[in-house]
Write a structure and sequence with these properties.
Blueprint lengths: L15 H11 L7 E7 L13 H7 L2 H7 L3 E7 L2 H7 L5 H5 L5 H10 L5 H9 L35 H19 L4 E6 L4 H12 L4 E5 L20 H6 L22 E6 L4 H8 L4 E4 H7 L1 H12 L7 E6 L21 H14 L2 E7 L26 H13 L6
Parallel strand pairs: 1-2, 1-3, 3-8, 4-5, 4-7, 5-6, 7-8
């Protein structure tokens, strides 16, 4: 629907000289076999709590130990402290901001309880009426609320829910990724919602100007403030990076909007796209592979086409921005915007494995893992489950497995 799936394919097999060039390019990307883990518990780009526990849940599931067994050194930068920063800038009181963030200690208590019920159910049973609703109905009072999707006549700036606060938060992510990249390590940024991609990819582009991006998602996240039905920023970061916004956005003055060239972005797994998003994608040079393309060609051909489209000479550094809702809810129910008919368990692993094989994958976003929406863990592990991954709810376990596949874990 949104692309010519055969575009970008090489008409002839790669020659031995071409393969030698690819092999040479592989060795030029990461300076060391080290992962820098950045926790970005940021869910201000939408109105659903729980995704802020993504970094904590993945740590507690044992990703570090499992990655070290693959031969990676590990640096954990901890979680970015958004609340303190916002409070310092006068954007929100720390207590107000934290009122909709589940406490990490509470999550650990749930783990210790035996996880016999869903996390949010357990929290409500423990706290009773003190437990707030999972979905927020109001934005921060001291941040301009969105009443229209038209540009402000006075400021010439479009309105997005919590724009100023989000811009300041995403800049913290940008700065953290920039620092991590200076060491030449693989940067794994765990959200949080997909708003974080504006920070990670803008930082990566400064380090790797020829960056190619594989964006795996049920949604394109390519609305603009003038097309978005919800005005929530988590549905806009791709459009912002591509330079599609009609005017500047308050809070993002620091960002080089448009840093990502359309031809260097490939989507995989799209299946829930707004009408105006679809129009803009079809009129652009973005490579969009929907679930229909996966149905028609198979995931092996789709990832091959996507990589060749954004990196025809097989020499660019690659970034994977993976929204867990790209996976079918049967395998990944713990996410905020489930959509039927997604990638299977093996299809999403195959995408990560193929990117790892290139040895040009330099970074990864892992977003929208929401432990508050995840069912409790299955009672018994299956043969083949990684014994180094702690018992976890199903979506958290899958997220850890996918990070390991992106880091080079293979079946054999």
């Amino acid at each position: 629907l949104l692309s010519n799936p055969m575009s970008g394919l090489h008409p002839f097999p790669a020659t031995s000289q071409h393969l030698k060039q690819i092999s040479t390019c592989k060795r030029q990307r990461l300076k060391q076999r080290r992962v820098t883990f950045i926790g970005a518990p940021f869910c201000e780009g939408q109105n659903l709590d729980g995704a802020d526990l993504g970094p904590c849940s993945i740590r507690e599931a044992g990703l570090q130990r499992a990655a070290e067994l693959l031969g990676w050194d590990w640096t954990d930068e901890g979680d970015i402290d958004f609340a303190t920063h916002f409070h310092t800038l006068g954007l929100a009181s720390k207590s107000d901001l934290n009122s909709h963030h589940h406490n990490v200690q509470v999550y650990r208590s749930w783990l210790q309880s035996g996880m016999r019920e869903n996390f949010s159910t357990w929290v409500r049973r423990q706290k009773g009426s003190e437990a707030g609703p999972l979905r927020r109905t109001e934005t921060h009072a001291d941040v301009e609320n969105c009443g229209t999707n038209e540009a402000s006549p006075k400021e010439g700036k479009v309105k997005v829910v919590n724009a100023r606060l989000i811009g300041c938060g995403v800049k913290l992510i940008h700065d953290s990724v920039t620092r991590a990249l200076s060491s030449g390590s693989f940067v794994l940024t765990v959200g949080g919602d997909h708003s974080i991609a504006s920070g990670t990819i803008s930082a990566l582009h400064m380090r790797y100007p020829d960056l190619g991006v594989i964006w795996v998602d049920a949604h394109a996240d390519a609305n603009t403030p003038c097309t978005s039905p919800s005005m929530h920023y988590h549905g806009m970061p791709a459009a912002h990076l591509l330079g599609w916004f009609e005017s500047s956005l308050e809070g993002f003055e620091w960002m080089n909007a448009g840093c990502l060239d359309e031809s260097r972005l490939a989507y995989i797994g799209l299946r829930d796209i707004d009408r105006e998003e679809a129009r803009m994608l079809k009129e652009s040079n973005v490579h969009a592979y929907t679930m229909r393309d996966v149905d028609k060609h198979g995931i092996a051909k789709v990832i091959e086409m996507a990589m060749q489209a954004i990196d025809p000479n097989c020499n660019r550094p690659l970034h994977l921005s993976l929204d867990i809702d790209a996976v079918d809810p049967h395998f990944a129910p713990g996410t905020g915007t489930c959509s039927r008919g997604g990638l299977t368990y093996r299809e999403i692993h195959y995408v990560c494995e193929e990117l790892a094989i290139t040895e040009r994958l330099v970074s990864m976003d892992l977003v929208e893992v929401n432990p508050a929406l995840d069912p409790p863990p299955v009672e018994s592990k299956m043969h083949g489950d990684d014994p180094n991954i702690a018992t976890s709810s199903p979506t958290v376990q899958l997220a850890v497995e996918l990070a390991l596949s992106a880091l080079g874990k293979t079946i054999l």
